[in-house]
Amino acid sequence: MHKQKTGVLIKCLVYGALAVVLLVLQSSRATGVSLWTASANFMPFLVAALALYENPYMAGGVGFFAGLLLSVHSSTIEGLASFWLAIFGVAYSYLAELFFRNNIVLSILGGMGCLAVGELCKYVFYYMLVHGVGFGAGMLTLLGSLILSVPFGILVCYIVRWISRKFSEDER
After folding, report:
1. If you count DSSP H runs as helices and E runs as strands, how many of each does the chain have, helices first?
2. CA dist 143 → 16, 137, 146, 147 (Å)
3. CATH number for position 164
4. Is 0.70 topped by the overall pTM?
5. Could you tell me the sign of the dihedral formed by the alpha carbons of 59, 60, 61, 64, in that order?
6. How far apart, in whole angstroms, are the C-alpha atoms of residue 104 and residue 143?
7. Most exposed among 25, 114, 126, 169, judged by the fewest C-beta atoms under 10 Å?
8. pLDDT per position in the chain (172 positions), as tens?
9. Domain limits at 6?
């Protein structure tokens, strides 16, 4: 029993460290890229993959932590990223338990959906209402965010699957 709790704690620490590494990769000057005023965001892919390969508590907890990292780093007034990623992680995990299989394509699609909904909400409630940005510019930002995030997001989903399988092998 004690060994199982230690394994879960180590797994949580590994996923937390992965979230920090992803934040550094997407936001540093050397690796951070922007396209049409959009930047990459790998956290939705991390949370979607955790929702499929782990339990809802792990997905919600790491989603909350990843959202806190995004909110602290962001220069805009977001603050809801931690709430959004935590709720998405729990809800997507429950949907996965009821209707899906643990499939890498579903984790990629879930990450893309989470990213798209988050960017749409940010556009409507921040850029459109506060700054009056037009619909075309908002959709270009959404498209740019998807273009920059999806290639590395696929790699994030594979990394989470590998970590999950590695720890499940160690528990046997």
Report:
1. 7, 2
2. 28, 10, 5, 6
3. 1.10.1760
4. yes
5. positive
6. 22
7. 169
8. 566 677 788 888 999 999 999 888 888 665 566 666 677 888 999 999 999 998 889 999 999 998 888 888 776 556 677 888 899 999 999 998 888 777 888 988 899 999 889 888 888 877 777 777 788 877 888 888 888 888 888 999 999 999 998 887 765 5
9. 2-171
